[in-house]
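Input record, target 12 of the design panel.
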């Protein structure tokens, strides 16, 4: 009886500690059953066969954004190669990604690339299997209004299928 109580108590303490961890992508039981497994994300099926295995993820701050305190919205984009083969992406300029803020109707309010200058140099990005490319950028919130829902969209201009969207809300 004491062993069973100790096991239940240990399981409770472990599960409550894991519930407070900052990465809720995998559940406690998923971690026990597959301790070395990656997240449960799967790459979408693209029409362009060169993009197979790639997954573009987007992260914006959680909770309502206070426009009185925030002038720039912090955006993190991550391109991950979940496939078994390297993927090569070619670019005509030094621009890789673009970020835009959309209102509820889908109209573009602000575009990240408008304030930037990109060189005419061609480039290639090689993403090896299980490798990730991180983009940590900010975009101005000057066009946003309080108590409304907006969408952040990150995409590769040369590869329109590589696109990720996430909604967020501004505080009243």
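The sequence produced for target 12 reads:
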């Amino acid at each position: 009886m004491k062993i069973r109580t100790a096991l239940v108590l240990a399981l409770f303490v472990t599960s409550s500690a894991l519930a407070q961890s900052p990465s809720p992508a995998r559940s406690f039981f998923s971690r026990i059953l597959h301790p070395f497994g990656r997240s449960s994300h799967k790459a979408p099926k693209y029409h362009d066969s060169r993009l197979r295995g790639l997954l573009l993820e987007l992260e914006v701050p959680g909770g309502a954004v206070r426009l009185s305190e925030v002038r720039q919205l912090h955006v993190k984009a991550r391109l991950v190669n979940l496939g078994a083969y390297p993927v090569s992406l070619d670019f005509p300029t030094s621009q890789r990604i673009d970020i835009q803020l959309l209102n509820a109707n889908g109209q573009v309010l602000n575009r990240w690339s408008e304030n930037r200058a990109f060189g005419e140099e061609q480039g290639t990005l090689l993403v090896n299997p299980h490798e990730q490319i991180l983009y940590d950028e900010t975009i101005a919130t000057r066009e946003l209004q309080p108590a409304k829902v907006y969408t952040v969209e990150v995409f590769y201009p040369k590869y329109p299928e590589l696109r990720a969207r996430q909604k967020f809300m501004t505080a009243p």
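The chain has a mean pLDDT of 82.
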